[in-house]
Design a protein that fits this description.
Layout: H1 20-40, H2 42-57, E1 62-66, H3 68-85, E2 92-96, H4 116-123, E3 131-135, H5 142-153, E4 157-162, H6 168-171, E5 175-178, H7 193-212, H8 229-243, H9 247-257, H10 260-270
Parallel strand pairs: 1-2, 1-3, 3-4, 4-5
Helix pairs in contact: 1-7, 2-7, 3-7, 4-5, 8-9, 8-10, 9-10
């Protein structure tokens, strides 16, 4: 029988009677459980990543689908890929029930529309090279389940990130990632441990995919966008370290070519 562990009563009572220190220590104690729960799901995360990489090498994309906190975290992770790895914004796409309005304001009944998710994927010309990843702590969001069901029917790789075992969402996923973080500190507040866990898993998926696609060298973001002075300085120091140039020459080279990787390749090819 499907049980929503994520919505079971908190392990803590009378929260309003606790001191600030007690509340913070309690929350921290619960947060420590998140990484351990995700550790148990690493085989599933690995299975997903190893199937995404060859698809993306053929031009495939990743679509995140979620509502509320889950949808916002998907949009967040997708939005960080271009500046971090220098990839176009069309390769990892976050879709949230209710559209961009829902990033800041709740949109009534948006997550209950079981057809809209698939319609949004069709609008973006989804193909069997793409991957659809549903995100929902409960594992019961109709917007997500409907999209996963149709995607799977069309031969598209599906996955999910949920905080409950054997959920309806997992039943529509080729690769269900179930991170059982337990009840929330505030009962049912899935923005807490579930949200933290979702962010961690999303980081793991896209970072490992981008490394596999050659967007990192050594341990450095050699393809990051040079969108501010801090990142220009960081890129310049990478070139100083890698090529043995002085800071001024390295910065000029970086600005000329637009990324650490392109600058380093151009310098080596000239030698």
């Amino acid at each position: 029988m499907f049980v929503k562990i994520s919505e079971q009563p908190s392990l803590y009572n009378d929260l309003e009677k606790k001191s600030v220190r007690e509340i913070l220590e309690d929350i921290n104690r619960e947060d420590q459980k998140v990484a351990l729960a995700i550790q148990k799901a690493i085989p599933q995360i690995e299975k997903l990543v190893t199937q995404i990489v060859p698809r993306m090498k053929q031009g495939g994309r990743i679509f995140y689908m979620g509502a509320g906190t889950s949808g916002r975290l998907g949009v967040l992770d997708a939005s960080e890929i271009p500046p971090t790895f220098g990839m176009p914004p069309t390769l990892v796409i976050g879709l949230i029930a209710g559209g961009d309005t829902a990033l800041r304001n709740p949109v009534e009944n948006a997550e209950d529309d079981a057809q809209r998710g698939w319609e949004e994927l069709v609008e973006r010309n989804i193909t069997d090279k793409d991957t659809v990843i549903g995100i929902a702590a409960s594992g019961t969001t109709p917007y997500v389940i409907g999209a996963l069901h149709e995607a799977r029917e069309h031969g598209i790789l599906t996955a999910c990130i949920t905080s409950n075992p054997d959920s309806p969402m997992a039943a529509e996923s080729d690769v269900p990632i179930e991170m059982i973080v337990g009840p929330e500190y505030v009962t049912g507040s899935s923005r807490m441990k579930s949200g933290t866990g979702q962010k961690m898993v999303l980081n793991m998926i896209t970072t490992s995919v981008m490394i596999q696609l050659g967007r990192v060298k050594g341990n450095k973001m050699v393809n990051m966008q040079l969108s501010n002075k801090k990142l220009v300085d960081r890129g310049t120091r990478m070139l100083v370290e890698e090529l043995g140039l002085d800071y001024g020459k390295a910065k000029a080279l970086l600005l000329m070519h637009g990324s650490v990787k392109k600058a380093a390749d151009a310098y080596r090819n000239k030698e």
